[in-house]
């Protein structure tokens, strides 16, 4: 019998990244940013998607959110220590993608040449 604190194999993936998660993490590499600054730098991200992504990252402990009672309201986001660790993972993923880009493109061409597999 396992202890109540023991993680089940199904609990290991605690980070459920959205389409924009790693983009936000990478953007915050340079330090504290305001919402609109993030949105401008990310180009094309819908405001609702960015808000939802930031909320999830804050909930999971990857970013901090600081709101200032000013007019207009000012909200800033920054990476936490755990967010820095996720950034390191994002960098390694990026390096992996660059190293294997050609192999992936070759595999895709091979796959497409024979069809998508018959069911």
Automatic annotation (TrEMBL):
A Pfam family matched in the record: HxlR
Top-level taxon of the source organism: Bacteria
Record's keyword annotation contains Zinc-finger: no
InterPro entries membership: HTH_HxlR (IPR002577), WH-like_DNA-bd_sf (IPR036388), WH_DNA-bd_sf (IPR036390)
Keyword Transcription: yes
GO MF assignments: DNA binding
Keywords: DNA-binding, Transcription, Transcription regulation
Protein name: HTH hxlR-type domain-containing protein
Provenance organism: Devosia chinhatensis
């Amino acid at each position: 019998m396992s202890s109540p604190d023991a993680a089940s194999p199904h609990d290991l993936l605690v980070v459920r990244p959205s389409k924009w998660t790693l983009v936000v993490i990478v953007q915050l590499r340079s330090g504290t940013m305001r919402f609109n600054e993030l949105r401008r730098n990310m180009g094309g991200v819908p405001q609702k998607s960015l808000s939802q992504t930031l909320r999830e990252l804050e909930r999971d402990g990857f970013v901090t959110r600081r709101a200032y009672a000013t007019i207009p309201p000012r909200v800033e986001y920054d990476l936490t220590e755990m967010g820095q660790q996720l950034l390191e993972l994002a960098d390694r993923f990026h390096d992996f993608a660059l190293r294997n880009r050609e192999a992936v493109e070759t595999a895709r061409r091979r796959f497409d040449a024979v069809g998508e597999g018959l069911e």
